[in-house]
Specification:
Length: 135
């Protein structure tokens, strides 16, 4: 399901083509792919709203960059969700940067594998990233 949501398996952050099962020639030049758990240190939570595809691994590429180097920005972009907000991964949007697929902007992930485009950034959508309901 996560593969289908990521359309032709492009990294959510950098738009790199990760691999293509239909065209084996692309596998040679494809970037390593990893399913990233938005709630860190919780690999047992495999709800689809908690998973995104990133290029690289825990020690390389986008996965490493957002995991290790850019945590505050990763949280702002929805790539990382704090433990206290774990139940709300379906409410906390993710910023997709996939221009080759015409998909740039904020999206909400569902546990059914759907991707819902948001017309405005989270602040304008009254999404409170602290987990508190907005008035």
């Amino acid at each position: 399901m996560i593969d289908a949501r990521s359309r032709d398996l492009h990294c959510v952050c950098c738009d790199a083509r990760l691999y293509a099962a239909a065209d084996m020639r692309l596998l040679v030049s494809a970037t390593m792919v990893s399913a990233h758990h938005r709630i860190l240190q919780n690999r047992r939570d495999n709800r689809l709203s908690n998973l995104i595809l990133l290029a690289g691994s825990g020690s390389r590429g986008c996965h490493w960059q957002w995991h290790s180097r850019e945590r505050a920005e990763a949280e702002r972009l929805g790539y990382i969700v704090r433990h206290g907000l774990a139940a709300d991964t379906a409410r906390i949007p993710v910023y997709y940067n996939q221009p080759s697929l015409g998909r740039v902007g904020w999206h909400r992930l569902t546990d059914d594998g759907d991707l819902i485009h948001l017309d405005a950034p989270p602040e304008a959508c009254a999404i409170d990233l602290t987990g508190e309901p907005s008035e």
